[in-house]
Structures are given as structure tokens and as C-alpha cells.
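Inputs:
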Amino acid sequence: MIMFKSLMTAAALSLIATAASAAGSAEKGKETFIKRGCWECHGFQGQGGSAGARLAPDPIPFDTLKAFVRSTNGQMPPFSENVVPDSDLEDIHAYLSSIPKSKDPKTIPLLNQ
Amino acid sequence: MSQSKTTHQPSRRHFLAGVAVAGVAPTLAPQADAAPLSVADPSKLPSALPPTERIAVNETGMPPQETNRIGGKAGSDFMVDVIKTLDIKYVPANCASSFRALHESLIDYGHNTTPEYISCMHEESAVGIAHGYFKVTGKPLMSLCHGTVGLQHATMALYNAWCDRVPVIMVGGTDLDAASRPPGVPTFHAATDINSIVRDYTKWDDQPTSLQHFAQSFVRAYKIATTPPFGPVMIALDAGLQQEPIKKHGEELSIPRFVASSPPQGDSGAVKDAARMLVNAENPIIIVDRAARNADGVKLIVELAELLQAGVIDYGCRMNFPNTHYLNKQPGAVSNADVILGMELSDFWGAVNKYTDNGEDGIGFNSPSIKPQTKLINISSVELLTKSNYQDFQRFQSVDISMPADAQATLPALIEAVKSALPNDRKAAIEKRGEAARKAFAENRQRTLLAAAVAWDASPISTARLCMETFNAVKGLDWSLVASEGNVSNWPNRLWPMEKYYHWLGRSGGYGVGYGAPASVGAALANRDAGRFSVSIQSDGDLMFAPGVLWTAAKHKIPLLSVMHNNRGWHQEVMHVQRMSNFRNRPANTGNDMGPIGTSIMNPDIEYHKLAESMGWWAKGPIKDPEQLGPALREAVEVVKRGQPALLNVWTQPR
């Protein structure tokens, strides 16, 4: 619930912020996603799990992501600019945006048994 | 051995009151291959003395056999007689000098059956095996250990058993007589009270000083351990008492008859109050954790839930409620409840509150997960068993009705009370709740499948795919998921149809890492005897606490499919370090690894398949490509069906 509220707050902040789109590098972002430890809770492809929310495919807008990362009061601690610089966040967002859409579970036999 | 030698040999323990047992003559060596006494009924003890050596020679024409040196039946032989009355099937243990006499009696006098000795590499593994075995069979095992060094190894596993309400009969060898015990280690590292280090997390302990005392204490220990709430017990066993022959003084030895105690049931008035509250609720929720002690418990919970059309949240320390049932709910369902019935919860506070480790001061903050007016009913036997030092309860949670009682034993009365209290004009509303529950269940299932499909083809392999490839390989068998350690995002409980009690065995209880591997082996041992197929999701960090248990499985031909969730780290701890770094506004130092220093298991990567292979397992890996997992699983299943344990080293996503 707190995570949800934080997301809503972050979404509201993003409306105020300029509608900047991330201009990062997906390739660098993939490395940074690992280097900054994002993968530990969110998985190598941002798929999420019991420890972290799903981030990809279709990530939230960059400004929303940034606002959340900087100010979350949910289970994830906020990451300051000193811990994850803006440029890294841009690369991470680019990486998350590059992840292709998931398969439809109806097409996966193992999920239909 | 001459009679005079036996008669005049001074006892090295004059303080131990000697007693005689019928059928034991100091003039004749005890028959090494004699059948143990059938002593469940004392009237069946042998009443005639065996022939003397001279008579035996005359009657048989056989030359005299070499007699034993102790001049009578060993005390530890009588101990085996006692143990055999309780039908304890196995004794997992790591050998030690302080119980050498009982060890010898178990394998020679007792013919290594009931109990059969299971050779273990570590005392923690031995207790973990007993832990897992109980969860399948509902029957306790005993374990032996050295009273000082061995018991220290066993402590974490005993703590897990304590927290998980699992009976284990722990017996620690000790050598009490300082005047006669051997010098060296037995004296060096003797202790006057070995039980003290586990007293905070055992139900009872004793240190018998005579064989009759042992008989009483062992049966008492078994009875206490197996009376709900279950828990481990500890017997300190003097080496002298084990080794010396039975003395012919006083009354004949006897073995108390074991009769199981009935579990404590909730007060009848409180049961009626709870029933009234439940039938008048608009949205009742049932939360269960260790409520079902066996398959009958599952049936009772289903009956109560259907009667009320109440959602059930299963916290999963046991298989309490089928996850295929439309009343199965997720923990968030408490937010709309007006009455919550908690049964055998280890954490009622956590069920109705939330803690967020992200406070302004770095400590965290609490928030309720329920409405202020929600009524709470608690049925839990844990309140009957509280220790002063090591605690096993969460933050204090005030409730409206509190029943310190065994939930499963209370359920029949509660069900009857609900039936009696159910007004006819409520039945339609209750039925309507069921319709809504069916719809919500179907919707939740679709959300779960959508989540499972994300990163389906990823490498390392997603935990959802790991679990579903594994299920696909075992679904046609009478399977039992004996452990799922490490965090796989709870996929087995979300996607596997858990309907039988042995489909899901819960977790460690005390959160002591290292439970999964030995508990899997213990549960697989029980499943082998029941003709079931055992499969475990085995995490890397858990296995490395005591990997020697792999050898035990191979040695004793325990079939087990171990599918590794090898995420190459202790991911539970990663975020703790990261959180501290963030609070302190500095990046976490990862060194050469992919997580904060001290949280990774990489560089070098452990080749678990080679480790397992070296100890007699069929093994394969590392498997990183999801397309290779299915075929490898099919091979491994065939191996396990032939009776050999098999391990697949699978590289996985972190969670």
C-alpha cells in the first residue's frame, strides 16, 4: 500500500516536472542496472518479484521513475544523486525501455497445465 | 568372564542406584544377537533366567563362547529396549565417543532397526533430517550427539525445530564421573550441565542417573515432545550409565507404557463467542500458519471456511489450505475484513500491521493493515509454551478473543458452534460472499500468470520458469515439495496445485540458513518409505552451510530431486547493506562482485553439480539456458525414480 502511495506521489511529481524523456544509453544502462544493484530485487530484466516491483517491459516515464527513486518512503530506500547519479538513471531507464514485451502467458504451455 | 570378577568389580558410579532386570544373569554373557525385550507390556518381560555357561555347554555340546567383559547386560542394551517401545524409525547422528555404548547397542543388540542409524556429517544436518522427517510423517526421530562439541553444532537446528513446533528427541552423551572418565577430550571438555545451552529452546530436558530413571525420562521426553504444541526435548546421557552392566539391586527394571496426550482444546465459552462473531461478520477472514498438523487439519479448515464462505490466507508454515480453492486469499485481503480469525500464527502482529524499514531516522515505521474496528480472534497453542530468554513471538498484538489452545483440536467444536450460531437470514449473504470469492480467485490467477510470463526466456533463468519447468517434470508423480529455501518469489505456492498435506512442508521456523538441505533429505527419507517422489528447490547459500548431507542421502539411498536456485548470493541480506549505504548517502562497495561485499557467492562460482557428484549423486550443470532445463529435469527424474538422488545446478535470477 505504501509502495502504491509512493508511486502515486511520484506520478504526481512527474506531472509537475518537465516531460523530459531519458536520453541515456540502453547498453550502458544494462551495466549500470547491475552495478547499482537494481537487479538484486528487480531481476536482470526488471521483471520484479517478491522483493521488488516489476520495472519492465513498459517502464514508467523517466520523470516518474526518478521522482520515485529519489523520494520513496516505501520498502525501497531512496537512492540519492550521490548513490545513483541522474545520468545513470537515464541509462537505466533507456535499458528498461529496450526490454521487449513479455510473452502472452496463453502461449506458454507450462503456464497452461 | 567369571562370576567372581563380575561380582567384585567395583562400580565406578556408586551414586547411580543399581537395579536388576529379569532375564539378566551375571554369570553369562548377554546374547549378542538376542532379540531386544518386548517391553511395551512389562508383564512380557522374561521371567526365567538364561542357562549358566556350564548348563549351556552340557545341553548343546557347543564349546563355551567367549563371554563379554562387563559381566552382564549392558545398560545401553536396556536403553535400546526402551527406545524400541516408541517405534522411532531412524536415528540420524554423527558418531561420538560419549555415546559409543548406546551406538554399539543400537546397531548390534538392536540390529540397527527401529531405529536405523543414519550416518550424518554434521549434527546440524542430523537434527535437520529429523525436522524434515517429522513434517511428512508426523512422527519424531531421535538424534544422538556428543554432549559438548556435538550439541553446539546441533543448536541452530534445534532452534529451528523449536520455532517450527517440531518434536525431536535429542540425546547428548556426557561423562559425569570425573574420577573415572578418560582423560583427554572427555575430561578436558566435560560439562556439568550440557543441556543448559539448549534449555531456552527445548520443551524439557533431563539427565537420568539410573536406568530406571532413563526409562521414565525417555518416555516422558517423547510424550512431552509429541503433545501440542510440539517441540524438541533433550536428554543428557551419562556414558557410565550406558556402559556399565545392569546392576542386580532393588526392583526389576520396567518401561513405562506410552500413551499419547490429547491436545489442548479451546474453552467452550470462548469458542461460542468466536462463532457468534464469525457468523455475524460481513467479511470474515481466516489466517492460518501452523494450524493443520496433518491432512485432517486441512479438511477442518476447508470445512470452516466453506461454512462461512470466508477467505483464507495461508502463511505457509504448513500446508493448511489448498491454494486451488476459490477461498484462498492473499495477505492483503485483511484490509477489508471486519473479523479475523488467526490460527497458530507465529506473527499475528505482522498479519495485521506493516513495518516499513525506511523511516526518517533510519529505524522504520509501523502502519496498520486493517480497519480500526476489525475484531480479532486468536487460537494458538504458542501461548502455552513461552520461554523467558529466547523469544518466539512477534510484537504484542491485542485481540478480542484469545484462546491459548491447539487450533486443530479446537476446530471441530468451533465448526459445530458456527453451525449452531448461523442464523437462517445470514445464509444468503454468506453464499454471495462465495460468488465474489470465486471471481476474485479467477482474476488473481490471471494476474499471477501474467507476472510469471515476464522474463520467461531470460538467462539466468527466471524463478517462475525454474519452478514451472520443475513442476512439469514431476506433475505426473505423487510428488512432495520437501523444501523451497531461498526466495523464489513464492512461485510454487502461487502456481503449483498444493492440495495434499505433503505437497508443501513449510520452512525452517527459526530462519536459520542451512535448514533446506538436511530437511529435504529427512523428508525424502519419509517419502521414500511412503512411495512418494521428493523434489526440492535448493538454494546455494543454504546448501553450503553443511553440504555433507548430500553424502548422507547417497549413502542411505534416499531418492531426492534437488533443483538448485543458484542465484550466487545471499540476496536476503543484500538490501540490508544497500539500505545502510543509502541512508548514509554513499554507494555500496561491491568489490569485484555484483552485490555489496560479503553478500555474493561468486568469484569463484561453486560447481554444485561436481560437489554432488563427488558424494554419489547424479548431477548436471551449470544450466543457464532455460531451453536446457526441461530436458535435464526429465533425465534427473528418471534417475531419482531408480532410487538415486539427483541435483541440477541451475543459474537463476535473484528472486
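The longest helix of chain B spans residues 427-453. Flag for discussion at group meeting.
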